[in-house]
Predict the 3D structure of the following.
Amino acid sequence: MPSSTRLDKETEALLKKAAECSGVTKSHLVRESIREYCARIVEQKQRTPWEIYQAVRKSDKGSGHGSRVKDGKKIMAAYLEEKRKKWSL
């Protein structure tokens, strides 16, 4: 289906140079670029908020609270045992 898009001079020059470097036509390069860009947008919209968070979080280490959450029962048991020892003296 035919489509028409107006480009500024800088964008047109960049498109022409990229097409020459790639050895493809400007039309082919525009089609592929739009297809890839739109696919990323659609994929992003289909991801859950948790998946998006996982993709953008800065560090694998996290906030440092993960071990406290994972080992919460052990930590609480140790705390209560320490408290029990103080009261039994």
In short: The radius of gyration is 28 Å. The chain has five helices and no strands.
